[in-house]
């Protein structure tokens, strides 16, 4: 009887050891299976999860606009007083819900496509209708001296500005400011010019691209990385290395993202590539994510971040490249004096904020971030925030600008483009990825724990019984 008992105890210890060893062995095997599955499903080709979410974004994308309404227009135009601004919004639009077009798979493991531009107004998510009126800077009048620098031409422009009744500031609807209107000053010019102006003119019915990206079929470390934009791997707007088109479009990244990585992504809105650093771990709809934020370094003065020196093009605005927080993209906008900043001049030098009143930067409301699922590289939540401004300069020949004393950056609006994975997509993602990985890890842990406990328990009992027998 004693021999049978010892045999049973020893058998239990052996079974426990085998179970623990099985659990340990399951870790590399499980990791291999996960890696193999992820590599297969993140390739951007028909039939994969990545492709399905790539053709049409798996999360509804919205763009909110806050327009800066001038509170003291009379004082500004008559006395050159500092504009007092108050943001009005949000005015919300659904974006990027049309599938990519002209999708072409190439033999070099790249895929090319056009991204349709579409914006559909969402009144239930907006503070008011699109025909709300705001007092804003006159886009055409302010841009005119930057586009036509000849003194003689500016004198003629002044005649047409006066005859049209245009001034430094104007009243326009939200729809007109965003998507365009016929400008009365430009209509007075007797030679052919484009008379429509608007911050995002043209937009609806146009396309962003041509993009060409790596599909990851032969090398998953290149998945979604941009090969070229408009058939070029560099941009003509910047000097040296700043002209490189780096990273992805931000919608996804190569799989197996690490916290110590720097994620690069390209934005055609700001005509440059930018980057994000790991900030924190997040949970969105029970899916663990890594949050990457665009750091202050990306907008720092070249004195702080020397790598930014080749983004400095306007020495007047930047005071010989010593100011932070503003990006002159006029070369990208056909010479129009457009300046990009973060909302409310977040991270900007104090000198940039001195031209206006009403700026209240807030890190949580105004920073840009991407929440990336680390195994697949999919961006499941993001917020892209930026502010569009015009650089205003004095002009002795254009009457509407004579009250301007010194050059300054005038905010027009700021936008918040956001997306978060929908409930159905989140459930699908959890069932296909998150839950399977959790189950595998649970099986591994339970096998190791139960096996170890069995082994130690039965072995201890065996030794105790054997010691008692000896006594």
Explain this structure.
The chain is an alpha+beta fold and 471 residues long. The chain folds into two domains: 2-37 and 435-470; 59-97 and 119-204 and 234-421, no CATH class. The chain contains ten helices and 19 strands. The strands form four sheets. Strands 1, 2, 5, 12, 13, 14, 15, 16, 17, 18 and 19 form an eleven-stranded antiparallel sheet that branches. Strands 3-4-10-11 form a four-stranded antiparallel sheet, with no helix packed on it. A two-stranded antiparallel ribbon has the order 6-7. A hairpin with a 4-residue loop joins strand 3 (101-105) and strand 4 (110-116). Helix 1 (2-41) runs antiparallel to helix 10.
Give a quick precis of the structure.
This protein has 471 residues and is an alpha+beta fold. The protein is 31% helix and 27% strand.
Radius of gyration: 30 Å
The number of helical elements comes to 10
- Total beta-strand segments: 19
How much of the residues is beta strand, in percent? 25-35%
Query: How far from one another are the termini?
Result: 17 Å
Shape: elongated
| Tally of distinct domains | 2
Main sheet specs: 11 strands, antiparallel
Helix content: 25-40%
Summed over residues and divided by their number, the pLDDT gives a mean of 89
Helix and strand sequence = HHEHEEEEEHHEHEHEEEEEEEEHHEEEH
> What would you call the structural class?
alpha+beta
Low-confidence stretches: none
